[in-house]
Specification:
8% helix; globular; 378 residues; 4 helices; 44% strand; mainly beta
């Protein structure tokens, strides 16, 4: 006797079944039928909840073999997992099948901007898909953390833009900063470069910086002519108007000498970790983006195990632990309630990039909105 399968409405399949599956399963399920393939391949397909991953590189630059794995951290429980190197051996140029200079340059909407030698790629870690977007020869010659870069989204034109600046180190007070040099940006659709004025001093760092509203953010120093001193601020490259803009900074922490600080993101909010010399730590979040008065103290502890360190907030796990990068060498989980800290990953130097799972192909970022909509209809 033939079993009659129930007729499940499309909305139920999409909302309560497919949207809750991991990306790896969805990629397999595209082969079930043409209709499912169309749903899953649609750029408008969204997961039931945002799944954020934190990719960790032992250094901003590392010479990788094609067989290497890259660790990543699950935001839900803080567990460390691994993802394979995005290129297979046969996909690499013959001259670079031994060890290759690999670095992360930015993150936006589930895509990572990465360079392999002088080639710059968009990489979707969820699907392992990559596409080369351009070549930038000077990248292959630039070492350490002499690169200021970002990937941002221009919502007005549905376009992605790449920002790259090659810096020289200078010492300003107790900061190692990057000398102000011309910064260039490129539209991935138009493939044309233009120059933009920075106007700030950016402390050297090894991570991609927090991404909010499609823009990557940096902690920077700005010269106050009235007080004749450098003050901290937060900047980002606005892809809609192609210039650097500021986010209001907590007034009481503007002066450079008062306290160290590290920029990050917690639950979709801009976050700032402040640590003093005697173990005091305070974490602030901007609950309403762009509104200065919305900076709120998330927690404050006067006797934490941290002493004179730089902390960069990454995320909050489901058990309430705050994951942070410590001195660009270690990722730690800190429990504000128990005042306990545990090490998750420790290296000589690390760079991190946070991304959300998406099934959109990076190849579709280089075509117009109309073409992408057509691609989503199978």
């Amino acid at each position: 006797m033939e079993v009659q399968l129930p007729n499940i409405p499309d909305e139920i399949i999409l909302r309560y079944i497919l949207s809750q599956l991991p990306a790896k399963s969805l990629l397999r399920f595209r082969c079930i039928c043409k209709r499912w393939c169309g749903w899953i391949s649609d750029p408008q397909f969204k997961f039931w909840s945002e799944r954020r991953r934190i990719l960790v590189l032992p250094k901003v630059e590392k010479k990788f073999r094609h067989s290497d794995y890259i660790p990543w951290i699950d935001q839900e429980d803080g567990s460390v997992k691994r993802i394979s190197f995005p290129w297979r051996k046969e996909e690499l140029p013959a001259s670079g099948r031994g060890r290759l200079l690999f670095r992360l340059l930015g993150s936006c909407n589930g895509f990572l901007l990465a360079s392999l030698g002088s080639s710059v790629f968009l990489w979707n870690p969820s699907t392992r898909a990559t596409v080369e977007v351009f070549k930038y020869k000077n990248l292959a010659l630039c070492y350490d953390d002499h690169v200021m870069s970002a990937l941002c989204y221009d919502s007005s034109t549905d376009d992605y833009k790449v920002v790259i600046g090659l810096m020289e180190h200078v010492q300003i007070y107790d900061y190692v900063c990057d000398r102000l040099t011309p910064i260039k940006f490129c539209s991935l659709q138009k493939k044309c470069w233009a120059q933009v004025e920075l106007g700030y001093v950016v402390p050297a760092t090894r991570d991609c910086g927090p991404v909010l509203n499609g823009n990557q953010h940096w902690l920077a120093l700005k010269w106050n002519e009235i007080n004749e001193r450098y003050e901290k601020t937060v900047i980002y490259f606005d892809g809609n108007c192609d210039k650097f803009s500021e986010v209001p900074f907590p007034e009481q922490y503007k002066e450079y000498a008062k306290v160290g600080g590290g920029l990050g993101e917690l639950d979709g909010c801009l976050a700032l970790a402040l640590c003093d010399e005697v173990g005091g730590i305070e974490l602030w979040v901007m609950k309403d983006y762009g509104v200065k008065e919305s900076w709120t103290s998330f927690f404050k502890c006067l006797d934490s195990p941290f002493r004179s360190v730089q902390l960069y907030p990454l995320c909050i796990t489901k058990v309430g632990e705050v994951l942070m990068v410590k001195n660009l060498k270690e990722i730690v989980a800190y429990s504000p309630q128990k005042k306990l800290v545990k090490s998750i990953i420790m290296k000589d130097g690390i760079g991190v990039a946070s991304y959300v799972e998406t099934l959109v192909s990076p190849a579709k970022t280089q075509r117009g909105r109309k073409q992408r909509e057509l691609d989503g209809k199978i």
